[in-house]
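Design a sequence for this backbone.
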């Protein structure tokens, strides 16, 4: 599946709780509830302060640092054999997870599992107008893309492919996340408008095809300039096995309205180069069975439109990076992503407007919000992210272990490996590749796997100052939140880059009249940061590594730079609309100030820390892994010489090798420039980094790297608990080994307990008289005990009439701890018509980033 490294940063629910949400959707039917087995995580409350273990017995102290395993081996395993291979001991965990239809197989095998809901299935279209004028790409017309929403029966797909266990999906926002609950009335209205209607789809498609110059032949097939309009459909055969039946169904539907479909059945690595790297206007493909995997819990989901529909995306793949949505949609998408709104109400209104705009654009037609079941052997103890599961979770390499045992070898099965080259700037975006990469990373902060908030990792604390009037709140004490009437950006803060002089441009130089910002983040790192954190090749991390990340943010988008890459420009331009500057105010302890107009609703997500790797905020120069300055210097030299390129587009345009740090022709090219860097005692960007790097220090770094490459044949180094020992691209296997010099104790993140998912029961009259009051009771519990009122953000109800129209949205009334009541006033019931109506309740906790829905049908009678 494709991984989305969002600046959004992103749920496990018992089947019964998820399935009741189906009742909210216009065409969904209910399926018998199944209760997932308990995980091996200890039953503790979700953290409200620094994570600490809370076992039933005193924990045994460990002296181990880094990951719990000595070695982790990755190999490719077909999903059909995953359970059998775990039973046979060939693998210990199937990290991609299995579809809901495979749940009985896992249970019958007696295997434990964890569940996550961060996987979305969709159809991705090629928007390109074909360069060859004799070929017509129907999906270059947004109205045809939009019409396919009516052509595909999402409920049929859910029932036939997923045994009715997943959720129907129309929007990029996730059906199980709080934003959907906030906008449930908007969602329900649009879901009704865009419900399955093949006749309407056929009518619109016919009208637009005729307008594009196509015509139907005697067999009812579309032709263009005398040739059949043939759709090249890339249909995945691997993954969890569900995309092939989806592809066949979609093909049948497209054929039913006159298209000829060329069904191209391919694996991830076969399809990837076609849809991700080919120029859309070459029309090598028309549509693809896509799926996206969340990597963290997204508390606001405000970046999704930018990520999925605009060229400003950080995804780095076609057809998104060349997308041209309607200008009002593009502006809204970027404004949302960059926090250009004043209130949470304004944010929600913008997201609501974007829901309809996304449907009209339909570069991606969303079909299913999926649930994934990740099976593993009973001896394994597994922590997971409610959205990202195991594979996509930042926490996974720090917590996975054998029960009550240190060391050993973990065998991980995945659907594929090496979907794209490994490099931190523009490398692989595949979930199966990023799992291994995450084990090599550390990070300035740790994503809470249950709430999506951040915890300090290599930083110690942060003070966030927000302009008065902007709604921001905090949850944890490690961050200090205050407000100011105005935030002035210091004149000596850096805000831009001069590629010729290779120096930063200050705010005072660029904005002599002065500059203000909405947010100031002052972040202090661990007092021994540069001594305790080291790269895998033995080099200590330094301020130069952090500054290099900002240099790379700027230098690659400047036409005067030797490593200019046009693919990086749109995302950087969006970044610059809100970025107001940064500066290092101290090196002992290292302290960084950051100024921005991008505002998150949570103080913890307004913490900005320079980091040479993926971050949880909009500063994201290395989206796909950590990068040391000396490694990137060697790659920069190769790129400047025209022998390598970080990104797919530049690689294709210049007909050079796509930079790969773990294998292939890139290694020999990098070796040449590593030797050159040593010979020249080369200090990169010397006018700036020369303040932090001497030529002797540079040579020492390069020599350490050279010794590393000689042993591992890899330029991939990070600061994480494991390092890549060997990567075999042809055999598709990869070995991680324990990094013995890792700074933190192995049990640092062992305190993540079980997520506090609410259970909701709704009760009330089966019949209601129109124009009369009716009362329903709502029970909200956790482990059969009343759910604490202090942990509930809201309990809201929606009333749907017999035609599935929303007639009322209102908060429920608190009765006592864990008990609420819904009162339908006479004015509400007066709006109902005779027939079957529906009451839906959405409960949104504060301690876990997932709402719980429950629904009840009732019949209305005439007065």
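Sequence:
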């Amino acid at each position: 599946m494709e991984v989305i490294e969002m600046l959004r940063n992103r749920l496990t629910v018992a089947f019964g709780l998820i399935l009741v949400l189906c009742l909210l959707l216009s065409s969904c039917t209910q399926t018998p509830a199944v209760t997932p087995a308990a995980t091996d995580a200890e039953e503790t409350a979700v953290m409200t302060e620094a994570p600490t273990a809370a076992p039933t017995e005193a924990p045994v102290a460990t002296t181990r640092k880094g990951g719990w395993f000595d070695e982790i081996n990755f190999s490719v395993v077909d999903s059909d054999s995953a359970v059998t291979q775990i039973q046979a001991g060939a693998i210990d965990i199937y990290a991609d997870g299995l579809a809901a239809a495979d749940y009985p197989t896992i249970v019958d095998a007696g295997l434990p599992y964890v569940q996550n809901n961060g996987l979305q299935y969709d159809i991705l279209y090629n928007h390109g107008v074909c360069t060859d004028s004799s070929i017509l790409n129907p999906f270059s017309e947004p109205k045809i893309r939009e019409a396919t929403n009516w052509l595909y029966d999402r409920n049929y797909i859910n029932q036939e492919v997923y045994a009715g266990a997943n959720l129907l999906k129309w929007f990029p926002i996730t059906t199980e996340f709080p934003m959907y609950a906030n906008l449930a009335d908007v969602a329900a209205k649009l879901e009704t408008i865009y419900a399955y209607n093949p006749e309407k789809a056929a009518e619109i498609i016919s009208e637009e095809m005729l307008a594009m110059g196509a015509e139907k032949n005697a067999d009812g097939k579309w032709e263009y300039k005398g040739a059949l309009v043939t759709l090249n459909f890339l249909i995945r055969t691997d993954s969890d096995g569900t995309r092939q039946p989806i592809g066949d169904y979609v093909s049948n539907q497209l054929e039913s309205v006159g298209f000829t479909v060329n069904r191209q059945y391919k694996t991830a690595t076969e399809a990837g180069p076609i849809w991700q790297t080919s120029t859309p206007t070459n029309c090598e493909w028309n549509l693809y069975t896509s799926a996206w995997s969340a990597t963290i819990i997204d508390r606001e989901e405000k970046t999704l439109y930018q990520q999925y529909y605009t060229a400003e995306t950080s995804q780095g793949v076609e057809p998104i990076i060349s997308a041209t949505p309607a200008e009002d949609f593009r502006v809204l998408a970027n404004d949302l992503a960059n926090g250009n709104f004043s209130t949470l109400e304004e944010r929600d209104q913008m997201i609501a407007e974007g829901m309809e705009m996304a449907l009209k654009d339909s570069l991606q037609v969303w079909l299913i919000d999926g649930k994934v079941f990740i099976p593993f052997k009973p001896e394994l103890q597994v922590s997971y992210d409610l959205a990202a599961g195991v594979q996509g979770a930042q926490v996974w390499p720090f917590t996975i272990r054998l029960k009550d045992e240190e060391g050993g070898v973990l065998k991980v099965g995945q659907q594929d490996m090496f979907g794209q080259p490994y490099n931190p700037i523009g490398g692989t975006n595949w979930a199966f590749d990023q799992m291994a990469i995450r084990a090599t990373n550390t990070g300035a902060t740790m994503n809470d796997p249950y709430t999506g908030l951040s915890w300090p990792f290599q930083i110690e604390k942060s003070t966030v100052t927000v302009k008065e009037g902007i709604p921001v709140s905090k949850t944890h004490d490690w961050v200090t939140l205050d407000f100011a009437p105005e935030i002035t950006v210091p004149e000596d803060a850096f805000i831009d880059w001069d590629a010729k002089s290779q120096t930063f441009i200050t705010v005072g130089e660029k904005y002599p009249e002065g500059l203000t910002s909405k947010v100031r983040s002052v972040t202090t790192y661990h007092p021994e940061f540069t001594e305790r954190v080291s790269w895998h090749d033995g080099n200590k991390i330094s301020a130069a590594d952090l500054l290099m990340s900002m240099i790379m943010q700027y230098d690659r988008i400047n036409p005067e730079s030797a490593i200019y890459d046009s693919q990086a420009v749109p995302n950087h331009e969006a970044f610059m609309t809100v970025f107001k500057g940064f500066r290092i105010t101290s090196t002992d302890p290292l302290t960084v100030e950051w100024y921005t107009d991008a505002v998150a609703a949570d103080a913890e997500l307004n913490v900005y820390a320079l980091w040479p790797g993926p971050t949880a905020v909009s500063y994201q120069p290395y989206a796909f892994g950590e990068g040391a300055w000396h490694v990137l210097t060697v790659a920069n030299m190769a790129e400047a010489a025209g022998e390598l390129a970080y990104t797919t587009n530049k690689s294709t345009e210049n007909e050079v090798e796509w930079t790969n740090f773990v294998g292939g022709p890139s290694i020999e090219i990098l070796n040449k420039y590593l030797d050159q860097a040593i010979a020249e005692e080369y200090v990169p960007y010397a006018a700036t980094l020369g303040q932090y790097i001497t030529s002797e220090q540079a040579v020492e770094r390069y020599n350490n790297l050279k010794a590393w490459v000689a042993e591992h044949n890899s330029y991939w180094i990070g600061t994480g608990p494991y390092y890549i020992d060997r990567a075999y691209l042809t055999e598709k296997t990869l070995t991680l080994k324990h990094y013995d010099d890792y700074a933190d104790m192995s049990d640092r993140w062992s305190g993540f307990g079980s997520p506090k998912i609410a259970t909701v029961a709704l009760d009330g009259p089966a019949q209601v008289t129109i124009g009369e009051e009716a009362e329903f009771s709502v029970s909200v519990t956790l482990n059969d005990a009343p759910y604490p009122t202090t942990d509930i953000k809201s309990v809201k109800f929606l009333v749907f009439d017999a035609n599935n129209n929303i007639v009322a949205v209102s908060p429920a009334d608190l009765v006592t701890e864990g008990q609420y009541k819904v009162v339908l006033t006479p004015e509400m019931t007066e709006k109902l018509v005779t027939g079957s109506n529906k009451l839906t309740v959405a409960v949104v906790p504060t301690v876990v980033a997932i709402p719980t829905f429950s629904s009840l049908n009732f019949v209305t009678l005439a007065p």
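Residues 629-713 form one domain.
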